[in-house]
Design brief:
3-stranded antiparallel sheet, Mannan-1_6-alpha_mannosidase, 4-stranded antiparallel sheet, 12 strands, glycoprotein, disordered C terminus, mannan endo-1,6-alpha-mannosidase, disordered N terminus, alpha+beta, membrane, 16 helices
Amino acid sequence: MHGWWTTRGAGFAWCLLMVTRLSPAYQFDAASHDSIKSVASSLAQDLMGLYDVDRPGAVPGLLPEPYYWWEAGALMGAMVDYWAYTGDTQWVNLTKEGLLFQTGPNNDYMPPNQTMTEGNDDQGFWALAAMSAAEYNFQNPPSDKPQWLALAQAVFNTQAARWETQECGGGLRWQIFTWNNGYDYKNTISQACFFNLAARLALYTGNQSYADWADKTWDWMESTDLLDPETYYVYDGVLASNCSNITPYQWTYNAGAFLLGASAMYNYTSGKTRQVWRTRLDGLLNGTMIFFQGNNSDIMSEVACEPVDLCDVDQQSFKAYLSRWMAAAIKWAPWTSGRILPLLRSTSIAAVSTCKGGPNGRMCGLKWTTPGSYDGFSGVGQQMAVMQVVLSNLIPSSADPLTTQTGGTSVGDPAAGGQDISRLDPFTTLDFLAPVTTSARAGAAVITALMILFLIGGCLFMLVDEKSEKTLWQMFLGLDTTTKPGGWRDTDDTDQIKSSDTPGSLGREPLIGSPNIPLTTLTNRTGDNMVIKVHHTTTLSSDQAISPTQTMSRQLSWKHVERRNPQIIVSKYWDGTSYHDEQRTARPSGSRQRLSKKRPEMLRD
């Protein structure tokens, strides 16, 4: 009996666990502000848990693998939204830290750890996060740090300079640098981020030049058929080498970026131009309906990959941006709320119902079109997407985005980003070296001079022979000044006799004949012995039975020129007929006591 109850109890516990797992983690009411904020708070907590900036080796503003840098920028934008809609300051410091840490040395979101593979769309997502921070008066950075508006302007300036007309008549390339895969592709999301940023900068600053760029981008998109002016479908991109070869995939974030940019342009313009943008905005809303599926066509889906389970890590986050930008568009084009809010509300209810996975039992899935079903896929993208669509329910009661005319406090810099305009290479170590000043050059000269002096001193020290009678200068020059009374010496240490040498000028005695005999020499050394072959030419008298000039050769050796090794001293002397070799044995101690003589040997001519 006891065993039966134990088995039944274990089975009951397992069933209870399964029911718990199958039940939604949240009791979500899309009409209740308290419920919306409560669920959004939990979603944000789980999302930032995946950011986990406190993990070993973590860098502020970077997500762990397998997430790319651009998605971290998108996450920062999501957390700016979270603060703006809920007023919860829990994540403000981390968000601010991440946004500022990744700005790069020129404050334009081109950090050295990313520029090698950075794309225009990657940079664009960080700029859009900074733009949101400016529009919502997110906590401004310290005065010695780059400001939100200036960061957005810097990115705009660098990208406007990259607008390329040689291929397809305009547009931005996907990649910034030539060696990256995708440089020959002009992808729509790069254009969409640029258009979105330009339109919002025009609205925030009132500067028409930004609006002109927004118009230019829209016109180029239509001219390439990447944006169909009839269906308002927005396609993925086009090869720069074949401008008619369009990639026909449709992604939620492309439509969303153009939707928000168009609403900003609608708000910025007036008269007939405003009507043009209203027509375009209506068209884009019609085009986005392709992303709403389910029985009532009111639940958002990433239709290019969700139905076939092929969404990659990037694509799993795309619905977050359509949710974000559809909601934000309502503020600048209020008449769209009647179409947008019902779609976002039904989507948020379905999305939250999938949040029943992961270790904590409340991580959210990717597919929302089957409410209450968790598909087993969770991560940063899924969690961010559900949080954004839940937050969209707070749009009607949230504050309007600001401009410089309505209370925006972020400081701008219209010339920002100039140092990276037309940059063709990523950052190297040289980019971070401080400019060389005059004082630095003077200091370097002094240090160089001292090093040369130390080097010379070291060389002299190595040349010093403490047993030698030579002076330090003679040792340095290598001169052999050993001599005996009446002898000659090689004072210039060339080991050569020149025609200009005389006994008086160099302390030499003539070898043969007149001291003015022209001589040339060839030196041959064997060990410590030195032999001089002297070829001398002399003029003979006319009564000699030989030619007027005669060349004679004699092999001679220096007289009294000493070459030392640790044991032997060899010197030469002339006895009037021939040269003799005098060899003496030196004492190892190098003392100056008398040296023993050995019998001289004759040197042959």
